[in-house]
Known about the structure:
By secondary structure, the chain is mainly alpha-helical. Helix content is 56%, strand content 0%. The chain has six helices and no strands.
Amino acid sequence: MYPTRLLRAHHGEKPSLTGFDVRKYAHSAGQPRYDPWERAEAWRYTGQFSRFNRFRGAFPGLGIATVAFAAYCGYEYMFLNDSHHGDAAHGEGHH
């Protein structure tokens, strides 16, 4: 094993060529006191664009289609029931 591999394994990651440490920079920056774009971005999550309204608009017509399908299933069950093709009819003449 090469000695350089031992040194790299000991440090865990490659050192930066410039000496700039991203973790130290992020830690020193912290959270900004004021976000200048906060007001400009707020409209994206309120009113017409709230999470509920975005989900509701994802499937237009789903509610109407569900009610229509349920009504058709009820109509088929009540009025289109074909009683002369019961289980007993299949056993008599068909072998």
